[in-house]
Amino acid sequence: MKKYNPAEIETKWQKIWEEKGAFKAKDFDKKPKFYQLEMFPYPSGRIHMGHVRNYSIGDAIARYKFAQGYNVLHPMGFDAFGMPAENAAINNKTHPAKWTYSNIDYMIKELKRLGFSYDWDRLVITCDENYYKWEQKIFIEMLKKGMVYRAKSTVNYCPTCKTVLANEQVEDGKCWRCGDEVIQKEMDEWFLKITDYADQLLDDMELIKDGWPEKVLIQQKNWIGKSKGAFVKFKIKGRDEYLEVFTTRPDTLFGVTFVSIAPNHPKLMDLVSDEQVSVVEAFVEEFKKVDRDFSKEKEGVFTGAYLINPATGEEVPLYAANFVLMDYGTGVVMAVPAHDQRDFEFATKYGLKKKIVITTDGLTNNPDELDKAYTEVGVLVNSGQFDGMDNEKAKWEIVKWLEDKGLARVGYQYRLRDWNVSRQRYWGAPIPVVYCPNCGIVPEKEENLPVRLPENVEITGEGGSPLAKVDEFVNTKCPVCGADAKRETDTFDTFVESSWYFLRYCSPKYDKAIFDKQRADYWMDVDQYVGGIEHAVMHLLYARYFTKVLRDLGYANSTEPFKRLLTQGMVIKDGAKMSKSKGNVVDPDDIINQYGADTARLFILFAAPPEKDLEWSDEGVEGAYRFLNRVWRLVYEYKDLKVIDIDINTDRLKELNYMIHSTIKKITQDFENYHFNTAIAASMEFVNFLYDFKPKTEDENALFAKAIEVLLIMLNPIVPHIAEELWQLTGHETLIAFEPWPEYDESATVKDTVTIAITVNGKLRDTLSLPRGIAEDEVFNKAKESEKIRRHIDGKTIIKKIFVKDKLLNIVVK
Fold it and tell me: How confident is the model at residue 619, as a pLDDT?
């Protein structure tokens, strides 16, 4: 018998698949379509076990759908822009493009070694100008439709390096490169108006709720954070002006004893009294430091200004406070110390008044006796004409009362902020905008796209945007009037590229538009998306947003990009996620070299359900390898058997037929639910049964040959190389990848015999294998033939018999 040699057979079949173009998707095929997609990787240089798991899950689904007769689109690409390439360029004195493409070449080889069924003709690389050209086009279309705007934004800035830093480049408030203190600085940046789609993003969850994990939708709902409340006007003392607050608790308006304002509010310094200017300025400068931790200490300073509480007419002090966010609500927050714990702590710290306006039985009416804020429901007190009213009901009565005075209005607020897409980096897609002294901000002409990244650029990590130093890039002509102008030197946030790549896969070489609408309409929506839950509120939300934008721009008909989402768990070792820093990384190449790709795929799919974390086990890998060797030996021993039609007319044939059809049923159901681990377990039980069966007649040989075929077809999505090799070994000339998935006969999944328990006075005395549906009297007669039963009933009086059909006969004796 030839020995199982993974290295030999895996290389062989990967070459055959590639030569035959086995997995090329066919646009507009008559078969039903199935779009299978896994989140594409960043080309960091190596595939890790998290990738292997993600892509093994996706490939099992894709290959199952091939077998079911679907026209499957299963593409792959690389999310290739990003900061790591710039860091590598600085550290290794190389160009980001060279580093990136070198990594891509290596990772493609690794992915091919794993035997994934990708249509490599549809490869998409986001740093390719033929990709980001269309991204620039999308931005221009959005700009023309008013979906984009430019505004001031606060960024992390290192004064020493004179550059903007990403959050991950700030370590304990210090610059990762020079170690000096980082400050916050305002800069003009580009924003996409995702908040215009907030309600759609919420409402359309109804369309995907049956296919997405509930926890992902909850995370997105919380991230969008829609709140119903009221905008309430507080008059500024001594001025004919108002500051507006947003509150979800208008029932507590009578208890407002001070108001807080964000330190970066544009009106703050205009409101500060002369005596407080220096104190407030010092506080604002401290606020700008990046290392502040608001969860530890709520701090503020009195501005010297007072506002008028619209509910009571009382003067309340205005404080600048470090916990008020300028980008949520209005940047001004009313404070009710008796009924909000944060306000309670702040008021206690600064000796500010507390006023109880909601009470319940047993609660003191003396605010000085409170040891914490009362935040439960109750009835209103100290609230004028609303006293005695349930606080929930009072909310909107108070708003209506103030609304009639022109001092309040019902409104909604969102936690979601507009998407800042400006990055002061080199390795990203240039934002296609020109600044003209005559025309102002002008989008680049479409015929001039792409705005290409210049190659002759020095990347040092210092001195601001690298593109700003390249004169031949910056200096250009206005697309409108032809005057000398300057290019935008920011590049897009890399989440932009991953927000629409799934649409480009539908027609990756199309050069007349962002993508071919007809092909997109054929393939979209993605039927199954697979990726990590860590992307729940960034990538997955942005992808949903972009799909809606492209629909509204007339490029696609999809409203939601992904019908179903599977979020796989992490791969962990020694109780922690695999990482270089923890020294617990397992290199997929090492596993493939020692055991083969099929073993890696088998273990990764068998060790845990897809959505659960997977604990790495060297013993588990060895066990997977042993199983494949068992399959190899089994099939090799019976490789010459042929399938022919026979009558199932003996007990052994019935038993084998039952195992074939019940295994098909079990594994099919498992695949439908992506329970690959239990599908593999059923395959292992089937193999054990076949080893023990040992066919003895020509009819048994024929049915055994069918069992082997069924086994290989159902193993193919998991371990495709060995399945192809053994399929060929058993005399087949077709690719097993496209063999139809076996169907089961429901009647054959029910055994003709059942095991019936025979008990005497409730105690099990024997079990009998008898024909299904056998009558009580016949069971009793068979039981009396059993020596084990006779010894407990002979010489005794049978009081009664209790019979449960096909399961149990209890004989009660005295």
Answer: 96
Is residue 590 located within the same domain as residue 734? yes
Quote the pLDDT of residue 226: 96
Please state, rounded to an integer, the average pLDDT across all residues of the chain: 95
Q: d(Cα 804, Cα 810) in Å, to the nearest integer?
A: 9
Q: Is the pLDDT of residue 278 over 70?
A: yes
> What is the rounded distance in angstroms from the CA atom of residue 165 to the CA atom of residue 464?
9
Backbone angles phi, psi at 526, to 5 degrees: -60, 125
How are strands ordered across the β-sheet holding 183-192? 163-165, 148-158, 183-192, 419-420
3 state SS of 315: strand
Task: Tell me: pLDDT of 711 over 90.
Answer: yes
Crossing angle (nearest 10°) for helices 49-67 and 597-606? 90
Neighbours of 559 (CB within 10 A): 16
Is the pLDDT at 292 greater than 60? The verdict is no
Which is it for the CA torsion 212, 217, 218, 223, positive or negative? positive
Q: Give the model confidence (pLDDT) of 326-344 as tens digits.
A: 888 899 999 999 999 999 9
Q: Using one digit for the tens of pLDDT, what is the confidence trace for 513-562?
A: 999 999 999 999 999 999 999 999 899 999 999 999 999 999 999 999 99
Distances (CA, A) of 52 to 45, 75, 178, 325, 571: 14, 16, 37, 41, 10
Q: Which residues contact 278 (CB under 8 A, 6 or more apart)?
A: none
The domain boundary residue, chosen from 518, 540, 573: 573
**Segments forming the whole domain that contains residue 741:** 577-745
Question: Over 70: is that where the pLDDT of 797 sits?
Answer: yes
Query: Which of the 8 DSSP states describes residue 737?
Result: G
With left for phi above 0 and alpha for psi between -120 and 50, is residue 162 left, alpha or beta? left
State whether 676 and 738 are in the same domain.
yes
Paired tokens of 777? 């009297």
Tell me the per-residue pLDDT of 679-702, one tens digit each, with 9 for 90 and over.
999 999 999 999 999 999 999 999
Q: Is 12 annotated as a binding residue?
A: no
How many domains is the chain partitioned into structurally? Answer: 4
CATH for 774: 3.10.20.590
pLDDT at 808 over 90: yes
| Pairing assessment for the beta strands 148-158 and 163-165 based on DSSP bridges | antiparallel
Task: Tell me, yes or no, whether 235 and 318 share the same domain.
Answer: yes
- Domain annotation covers residue 219: no
- Banded model confidence at residue 21, pLDDT cuts 50, 70, 90: very high
Query: 400 and 337, same structural domain?
Result: yes
Strand boundaries in 415-553, DSSP class E: 419-420, 422-423, 433-436, 440-443, 475-477, 484-487, 491-492, 528-532
Residue 610 identity: P
Tokens (6 digits) for 20? 């035959």
Rounded Cα distance between 673 and 207, Å, is 20
Residues 6+ apart with CB under 8 A from 203: none
- Verify that 763 and 780 share a domain, yes or no: yes
Please report whether residue 441 resides in a domain. no
Query: How many degrees, rounded to 5, is the angle at CA 519 between CA 140 and CA 72?
Result: 130
Q: How many CA atoms lie within 13 A of 469 on its CB side?
A: 17
> 546 and 406: one domain?
no
DSSP state of 248: S
Average pLDDT of the segment spanning 604-610: 97
- Give the alpha-carbon dihedral of 719, 723, 724, 727, to 10 degrees: -170
Amino acid sitting at position 26: K
Question: Which pLDDT tens digit goes with each residue over 526-540?
Answer: 999 999 999 998 999
Question: Which 3 state secondary structure label does DSSP give 598?
Answer: helix
Distance separating alpha carbons of residues 678 and 190, to the nearest angstrom = 49
Best CA proximity match to 183, nearest among 163, 207, 212: 163
User: Is the pLDDT reported for residue 569 higher than 70?
Assistant: yes
Collapsing DSSP to helix, strand or coil, 148 comes out as strand
Give me the CATH number covering residue 678.
Answer: 1.10.730.10
